[in-house]
Structures
1.
Amino acid sequence: MTANAKILGTGGYLPAEIRTNDDISKTVDTSDAWIYERTGIKSRRIAAPEESAASMAEIAAKQAIANAAINASDIDLIIVTTGTPDCVYPSTACIVQERLGIKNCVAFDVQAACSGALFSLSIADQYIKTGAAKNVLLIGSELCSRIVDWTDRGTCILFGDGAGALLLGASEEPGVLSTHIHSDGAYCDLLYCPNPQVEARNDKNGLGFINMRGNEVFKMAVTTLERIVDETLEANNLSKADIHWLVPHQANIRIIAATAKKLKMSLDQVIVTLEEQGNTSSASVLLALHQGISDGRIQRGQNILLEAFGAGFTWGSALIKY
Ligand code: COA
């Protein structure tokens, strides 16, 4: 019998430093009112110098393991998704594996920018369905503050740091109902972050910062996410009314509101964290899922639609019965 990937537990970590819109307004020409109105963001968390993708991932992972009430040694696969890995290699997943003291499991990283959580979830689901793994730990951990140009008001207002974790286990009960992932490399120029050591593409100052044509990304995100909502509902033969919660990537409240409207959902049925977290890239969906589950809004048996859009472009969704 094919197993289902069931959510066993979630975890999250946010660094202590809070950087408000007013703080940013002191260094670039912007304002709290502009940022809040155009994005829905009020503040974001900034990691301390000694923190890294692996150190934040470790904390989120330990919380997910504790909430799942399993032994770390029962995890067969660790997937970390990050755009800010500690090292080019080894993978951040291997560093986390060592920090968690887990022997004899497989660990690897996945890179799909802000869609990384959905790509990782899709992979985890296949491993569990085929019986190749029983318990999969999935972590998104991002230090966006280290790859943001703090003099560029078009990007520095958007991003934040944090880590989210999800433990999936094989179950006979329904769990992940479907996953849908897509890529289109034709849009690499609209949103990219060069690797300064490789220098395969020109960066304005060679430091490896996020470059983005925000308005074009915005329009593509809205239309693409509307399409993937239809694709997800059709694949499951469900209607909009069957979805209890939308757990979206947290890029911009106007993008989130457009997807909710498409689903005929009020924002009360959407887990929104970006006001206080900003866009934490691949961590954002996992942090939002953790928030909705830990504060009791998302209940067992409910249907959750997860979605994300990111550089590449990449985009993905998942329908999960919690
Ligand atoms: N403060 C004040 N003004 C700003 C500003 C800021 N932080 N950033 C841009 N502006 C200005 C621009 O310079 C421009 O001025 P101009 O009309 O005099 O040229 C004006 O605001 C409009 O710029 P535009 O880029 O069209 O604004 P926008 O409404 O698209 O909002 C973003 C900008 C970045 C907030 C928005 O495009 C966005 O959120 N895009 C998607 C980003 C995203 O999701 N990225 C990650 C995908 S995973």
2.
Amino acid sequence: MSQKNIFSGVQPTGNLHLGNYIGAIKNFVKLQSENDSKCIYCVVDLHAITTKQDPQKLKENILETTAVFLASGIDPSKSIIFNQSMVPAHSEGTWILSCIARMGWLNRMTQFKEKAGKDKEKASVGLYIYPILMAADILLYDATHVPVGEDQKQHLELTRDIAQKFNTDFKVQDFFKIPDPLIQEKFSRIMSLKDAKNKMSKSDPSDASRINLTDTEDQIHNKIKKAKTDTKSFPANEKDLNKRPEIQNLIGIYSSLKSQKISDTINRFQGKNFSNFKEKLSEVVIEHISPISKEISKLKSDKGHILQVLKDGSEKAEAIASEKVKKIKEIIGF
Ligand code: AQP
């Protein structure tokens, strides 16, 4: 079987949450145990500055995101863990690829539209070309598979378009590998606990909308207790979930953490009231998140260790990425 090169990243923008864990990080950990996988996981701080960041807070969030990787089970002796800004090839690669990408392709990106909001004129140029930086991240490591949440699927398609255009324009078939997204079929999008129309997100001003990976047991318990439900009874089957996004989300979280089908969860709680289900949901979330939360605070007390992990990982990443940039430069005629 051919080797899988896995690459993915998480922005150090604080408040890492259960959506990041279920949609991405849990999968990162699973992939590193597969024999045919070489995994590279990046703290994408260059992506983070596409929106305004407080410099001191950004420094702390870089360490915290690395701590989340380690506490969740990503092992630096098996996977490369590194910080994007420590590897200059990402910025250099982005410039070159931005001369390959087309304006029309970027104009279709829905995440820019969502994040820029109504006043697009005031959004940073970096936010607009964010998907090109993401393409550079992936293509510099010859990634074949990219584990992401469903929200990143469109950016992956753009990465494939850029890779294909470069290979065709310069007649270098197979120079850039065409990466595939690894999106879990189910539970790929965890929604806000307060309004299931929106995804669970770090930047939601309401802390009650998300379970942070640093939350205490009491905080988790209280947030789930107050999570929005409706006045109807517990669903009798999967069809009953239609037009009940809040219930679908909570049942999805439970099923994902228990690694079981939605129908099994429904069968277990059918006929019971929501408070009973929420109690059990709290238990399951606490069982998964509390050990991570405790390990994060332990790791954060030894900043030197976290910085060393990033330094070692960045050296390994630099060796791969700078070699690829060197080849790109030769191809384009520098
Ligand atoms: N709600 C979610 N459900 C499932 N997966 C999610 N991801 C994010 N939110 C959810 C996945 O987590 C990975 C890391 O995301 P990111 O930090 O790079 O940025 P993001 O997608 O912009 O995350 P947020 O939480 O929504 O941050 P803000 O609020 O700053 O925009 C990605 O693989 C993502 O798919």
